[in-house]
Amino acid sequence: VQLQASGGGQVQIGGSLRLSCTASGRFVSLGVMGWLRQAPGNGRELVCTITSDGTSMYGDSVKGRFTISRDKNTVYLQMNSLNPEDTAVYYCNALIKYPGGKFVRAWGQGIQVTVSS
Are residues 92 and 75 in contact, defined by beta-carbon separation less than 8 angstroms? Predict the structure, then answer.
């Protein structure tokens, strides 16, 4: 299974971006999906997650500004009111259930988001 992320780029302070991440390959189902980010010199930070029934959870730094959603095999991250502290490489992830019952967490490639003045 592969997770392919898209939608990053550079935006001005206060702007918006929408990230997408699509799972492809052979699997039974997708469990919790989410996004983490890593800024230069920092560790990975949880941004948000969403369960298969649509329950979402957000890190304190993005509450009220970011919205996670999912549709079939894709998870989305709508980012509004962006500020320089949101500059980071963003990683999507998903809990994959394979035939036979095995669960594996898959990761997408990192995607750069840069917020500038």
Answer: yes
